[in-house]
Design goal:
Lipocalin; about 425 residues; mainly beta; 2 helices; about 5% helix; three-stranded mixed sheet
């Protein structure tokens, strides 16, 4: 009997050893680690049991190279043209637009996107993720100066509501503009500079919920709070120096003035128009994120849609200054496009939508450490941008730098404008993610 029992035990042991010797990669009670079974760079992710480990926390840092929608302009802002009646007015023969034909191109921005997250449970079913976005301030500048003889002609165009036609304020002009031949080299010389700044930033906090998971990927539901901010400005500054022995008679309607009088010889007229805008979005959002893996490579796609309130603030400021050889003669807190009721700060709140789509492709360098490249696109509705707030419809009787300044008999223009438009920003992301 004992010999028969010993024979059975030997048979079972022999059979088990043979089965293990011929193991074909299927699941066992004590499976062979996939890294050693297959070996090489592709070993990770090929086995089911190896992927069952859960990475509870993660941190991501990304470098951004982004672009944004061009800033709008109200129309031509700087022109030039031949010396003639209504010199450099838009639409006149020979008039050329120097600035304002196109939008404000802010070119490329650089910035950073920072993310941290954690699953609340070991099965990765519910978690929290917090992100912050910061993009640099980008400034664009366009400027033009005349020579001492007043060439080229530089002008600030506007629509004259008294005449119902395009007009312009002259900054620089040569001797011929004066209409006299007094033997002196008369001129208006100076220049103009246009600056515009733009920067944006944001943050969000989201709860994550696992909608489904497999060996090669998973799908997550995203929901939470989103904040986004955008600061922009548009500044136009000009300077005119009158070089003349005597003032022309009669004084041209486009001649530089100060509070209704022509600027005297050897005096300087300076004018500034500035508008600053701030937009801030506060709202909730929902989205989906899907991830796929193949070996060490991964792909992640994200889509989000947010609804909330955008707080818009617009500040318009102007300044006209007269300076003589002995120093400042006078200053008025109004410019060319910023006068009267169009001066000051206004704010309002609008219902807005923010949507975002993003894609990342990565490769795992070592366990838990992934580098990735991708892109994002963000859309934001109903925001206030600087160029839309300037009003080119002017009554010269309200403009301190116009010789017609004084008793107002026409429309009270420029009236305040509070315009909105849509905004987008997006570009390339390059970053690294650590999971542990």
């Amino acid at each position: 009997m004992q010999s028969k029992l010993l024979a059975v035990v030997l048979f079972v042991l022999t059979t088990t050893s043979a089965a293990r010797a011929q193991y074909d990669g299927g699941d066992l009670e004590y499976p062979v680690p996939t890294t050693f079974r297959y070996g090489g760079f592709w070993a990770r992710d090929l086995g089911g049991r190896d992927r069952e480990r859960v990475e509870r926390c993660w941190a991501r840092v990304e470098y951004l190279l982004w672009w944004e929608k061009d800033g709008p302009v109200p129309g031509p802002l700087v022109t030039t043209g031949p010396v003639a009646p209504t010199t450099a007015a838009v639409g006149n023969p020979g008039t050329t637009v120097l600035f304002g034909d196109d939008g404000l191109d802010y070119m490329a921005h650089t910035g950073g996107l920072f993310t941290v997250g954690c699953w609340f449970d070991a099965n990765a079913t519910v978690g929290l993720e917090i992100s912050g976005l910061l993009v640099e301030t980008h400034t664009i500048h366009s400027g033009l100066d005349s020579d001492l003889a007043g060439n080229p002609v530089i002008a600030r165009p506007f629509f004259n509501v008294l005449t119902g036609a395009e007009d312009a304020q002259i900054l620089t002009a040569p001797n011929a503009f004066f209409g006299t031949n007094d033997g002196f080299s008369d001129s208006l010389f100076g220049g103009i500079d246009v600056f515009s700044d733009s920067r944006f930033w944001g943050g969000e906090a989201n709860l994550l919920a696992d909608l489904g998971r497999g060996e090669r990927g998973r799908l997550e539901l995203i929901g939470g709070f989103r904040y986004f901010g955008l600061d922009e400005s548009l500044r136009i500054s000009q300077s005119t120096t009158v070089i003349s022995a005597v003032l022309p008679n009669p004084v041209p309607a486009q001649f530089p003035g100060f509070l209704g009088d022509p600027v005297p010889p050897i005096n300087i007229q300076s004018v500034l128009d500035r508008v600053d805008t701030r937009n801030e979005f506060y709202g909730g959002q929902l989205g989906l994120r899907g991830m796929l893996r193949a070996g060490r490579f991964s792909t992640e796609a994200t889509g989000k849609l947010g609804l909330g309130a955008t707080c818009q603030e617009v500040q318009l400021r102007g300044e006209t200054e007269l300076t003589g050889p002995a120093g400042r003669i006078g200053i008025v807190p109004e410019g060319l496009y910023v006068v009267g009721a169009n001066n000051g700060t206004a704010s309002r709140t609008r219902l807005s939508v923010i949507s975002e789509v993003g894609l990342r492709c990565g490769v795992e360098l070592t366990e838990g450490l992934t580098v990735h490249v991708g892109g994002m696109l963000l859309f934001w509705s109903d925001i206030a941008r600087p160029g839309e707030q300037f009003n080119r419809n002017l009554n010269p009787q309200l403009v301190p730098s116009n010789v017609a300044f004084g008793t107002v008999t026409g429309p009270a223009e420029p009236a305040r404008r509070f315009e909105s438009s849509n905004f987008w920003a997006g570009g390339m992301n390059l970053g690294v993610t650590l999971r542990y």
